[in-house]
Amino acid sequence: MAIVEFGEFKGNKMLILKRTPEDHYPFQFGVSKAKLVLEHIEDIRKFVAENQKE
């Protein structure tokens, strides 16, 4: 399960997702990218379903 944290970059709020507490390269993004993800969540789900390794 991912670890969810919140941060800030140049005055902008960020969402930070880590695989482990020691993750040196977390996935982080702000509100604009979060909105883009939400607009395309079904496309992302389809992409994962079609390309995940079993």
Q: Could you report the average pLDDT, rounded to the nearest whole number?
A: 95
Assembly classification: single chain
The largest pleated sheet is described as: 3 strands, antiparallel
How many H/I helical runs? 2
Q: N- to C-terminal separation? A: 18 Å
**Helicity range of the residues?**
25-40%
Question: How many domains make up the 3D coordinates?
Answer: 1
Question: Proportion of β residues?
Answer: 25-35%
Radius of gyration based on Cα positions: 13 Å
Computed structural class = alpha+beta
Output the strand order for the largest sheet: 1-2-3
The topology string of helices and strands comes to: EEEHH
Question: How many DSSP-defined strands?
Answer: 3
Question: Can you offer a commentary on this structure?
Answer:
The chain has one domain. The chain is built from two helices and three strands, in the order βββαα. β2 and β3 form a beta hairpin.
Q: What's this, in brief?
A:
With about 55 residues, the chain is of the alpha+beta class.
Question: What is this structure's SSE topology?
Answer:
Elements: E1 3-9, E2 12-18, E3 27-29, H1 31-39, H2 41-51
Antiparallel strand pairs: 1-2, 2-3
